[in-house]
Amino acid sequence: MASLPAHEKVVLVGHSHGGLAISKAMESFPEKISVAVFVTALMPGPTLNATTVYIESSRGVLSALDNRVTYDNGPTNPPTTFLDGPKYLATNVYQLSPIEDLTLATTLVRPLYLYSVEDVAKEIALSSKRYGSVRRVFIIAAKDKFLKKEFQRQMIEKNPPDEVKEIEDSDHMVMMSNPLQLFTLIMSIAHK
């Protein structure tokens, strides 16, 4: 983003925890972003703390079904990594996606580093002046079982974006379960 020429702007799209990354970019480079699109993504804001959405998104997930965590700093400290199990992926993440995509995902799954609440709070502090100056669109995945529709709606209510769109027949992996509708929405948002 820093090397982008001053006269150019980008459309940022964040999915799932990628919402935290685009939020950080919005705070750091608001003048270089024409619109930020949150696709069933964590969407913190100036009045909705990043740690709050980070913690809420993890509630119940770490111990669900065949998911696993590791405790690299010892069992009395918080877990350090998280790994989605194949049953969890099939029932909560890829339940509407083609079986080929689920199969590939189960072979490519890697441990996800679990950032501490302190790290999240330190890295993602958002202001109305910078973050708030960027146009935001949230795309709801109606049948997402990872970031449930109720949670998506809570983020929208507490940190209202400029627009809200919804993809009805989509699981958490919208780009797999309903790619054409996602593509069409992103293109229409980008050209607005």
TrEMBL record:
Protein name: AB hydrolase-1 domain-containing protein
Chain ranges of the AB hydrolase-1 domain: 7-181
Annotated source species: Solanum commersonii
SUPFAM superfamilies per record: alpha/beta-Hydrolases
Recorded GO MF terms: methyl indole-3-acetate esterase activity; methyl jasmonate esterase activity; methyl salicylate esterase activity
Gene Ontology terms describing biological process: jasmonic acid metabolic process; salicylic acid metabolic process
